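User: Can you recover a sequence for this backbone? Please restate the input before giving your answer.

Assistant: Of course. Working from this structure:
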């Protein structure tokens, strides 16, 4: 039975321990970079910029398009008016009538009597000849009328139902430099998005480090507060025993009780701050805010600190800082935008060509068939007068370039100041850590001496509490100095642009 209970207790203890997540600074950085939403947005923006750059490259190539259309109109287009159609349709009748009138005029004339006498001597009849001629004229008139109607039908357009289509290509030859400028802008924009992503990564790492070392600092202060509380509890117990023995006063006991209450309140505040700091760290690295985590540096006796002698290197910061690179990108974009605007005052040349088809077609008269033709040409556009519109836009763009240049110079000055400040801060943090370590030795010795004197009865509880308070302050200053060294190093790396 005892064995079963022991196994159950071991399992109960092992479950929460296994559920706890142990994290180092590097793992926190990796999780933050992997789970940060803004970094994911930066990656998407990089993809967008890449696609825009690829789109800009296509402006050098010929573009081909196809167009098809159908139109129905209430009236058709006619090449002949109604009188012309009627004249062509009765062309034979009109001609036959004119010939008959001419023949009738000749028949009534005097020479026709000699012709009739000559025909009679040959055995021919003039009336029969006239009848035969009339039949031939009617046949001629019918054929001529048919020919006229055929011409009318041939010129019938029937454009109420119109089908048309074309395939066109346009090859830019010279666009005033606008295509080249747009491609350079696309390249610059892609580089800007990379710099923006780098800045976001550095900011994420910076915030992660601050949250990480904040948790470590509060955890060490929690252990310090617990140790201080244990010292006060032991002192409180000893003082109350001394009061019972009559060697200490009631006032000494109340003073210790007040310090004990203050220590308990301090421990409560530290515990609350530690919980909130862990929530912030979990949110930063993409874990649920109530996740039970333990940091690799929070349980160590001392925070491992490698003091480094900082080297002032402004040129490194100027070369590496993504903020300056983005400002440079902005200046370059503004210059290329000026080139695009200048193209508005330059001629543009393009080659055009294609194939067009229509029904009815005009290639072989008006036919109800799909027929087409090829075409090749040159398109030239020369701006003549625009009331200075382009000139004003170019001036405005140059002004924007000047503003971007001034902002870049100001940012460089601020970064130079920032690098100097953080280099100085690292040096000062190293000095404070050295002094804090020295104070620890003195505070430990002072507390040891006070405890010995208190046990020997030659030192009052107030003196012991003063020694304990001095020890607490020295230990707290050491923790703050260690964390300050870590954070000052991170600040210096960020100001130099080497945090990644």
């Amino acid at each position: 039975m005892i064995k079963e209970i022991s196994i159950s207790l071991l399992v109960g203890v092992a479950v929460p321990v296994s559920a706890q997540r142990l994290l180092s600074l590097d793992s926190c950085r990796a999780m933050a970079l992997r789970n940060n939403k803004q970094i994911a947005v930066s990656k998407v923006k990089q993809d967008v910029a890449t696609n825009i750059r690829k789109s800009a490259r296509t402006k050098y190539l010929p573009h081909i398009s196809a167009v098809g259309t159908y139109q129905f109109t209430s009236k058709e287009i006619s090449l002949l008016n109604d009188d012309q159609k009627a004249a062509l349709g009765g062309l034979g009748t009109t001609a036959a009538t004119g010939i008959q009138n001419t023949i009738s005029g000749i028949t009534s004339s005097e020479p026709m009597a000699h012709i009739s006498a000559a025909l009679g001597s040959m055995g021919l009849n003039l009336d029969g000849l006239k009848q035969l001629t009339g039949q031939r004229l009617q046949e001629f008139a019918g054929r001529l009328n048919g020919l006229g109607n055929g011409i009318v039908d041939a010129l019938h357009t029937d454009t109420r139902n119109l089908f048309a289509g074309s395939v066109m290509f346009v090859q830019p030859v010279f666009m005033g430099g606008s295509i080249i400028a747009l491609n350079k802008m696309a390249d610059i924009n892609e580089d800007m998005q990379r710099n923006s992503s780098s800045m976001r990564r550095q900011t994420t790492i910076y915030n992660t480090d601050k949250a990480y070392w904040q948790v470590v600092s509060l955890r060490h202060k929690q252990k310090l507060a617990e140790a201080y509380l244990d010292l006060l509890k032991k002192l409180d117990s000893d003082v109350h025993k001394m009061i019972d023995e009559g060697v200490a006063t009631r006032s000494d006991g109340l003073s210790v009780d007040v310090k004990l209450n203050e220590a308990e309140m301090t421990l409560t505040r530290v515990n609350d701050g530690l919980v909130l700091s862990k929530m912030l760290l979990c949110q930063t690295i993409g874990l649920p805010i109530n996740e039970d985590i333990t940091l690799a540096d929070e349980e160590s006796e001392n925070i491992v600190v490698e003091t480094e002698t900082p080297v002032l290197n402004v040129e490194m910061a100027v070369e590496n800082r993504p903020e300056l690179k983005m400002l440079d990108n902005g200046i370059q974009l503004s210059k290329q935008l000026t080139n695009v605007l200048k193209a508005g005052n330059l001629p543009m040349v393009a080659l055009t060509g294609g194939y067009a088809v229509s029904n009815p077609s005009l290639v072989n008269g008006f036919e109800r068939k799909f027929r087409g033709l090829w075409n090749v040409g040159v398109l030239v556009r020369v701006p003549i007068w625009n009331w200075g519109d382009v000139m004003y836009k170019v001036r405005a763009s140059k002004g924007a370039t000047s503003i971007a240049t001034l902002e870049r110079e100001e940012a460089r000055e601020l970064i130079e100041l920032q690098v100097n400040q953080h280099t100085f801060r690292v040096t000062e943090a190293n000095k404070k850590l050295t002094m804090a370590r020295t104070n620890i030795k003195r505070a430990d010795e002072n507390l040891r001496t006070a405890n010995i004197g208190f046990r020997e009865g030659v030192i009052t509880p107030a003196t012991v509490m003063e020694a304990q308070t001095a020890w607490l302050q020295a230990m707290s200053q050491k923790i703050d100095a260690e964390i300050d060294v870590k954070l000052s190093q991170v600040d210096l790396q960020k100001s130099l642009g080497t945090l990644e």
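That completes the design. The longest strand covers residues 161-174.
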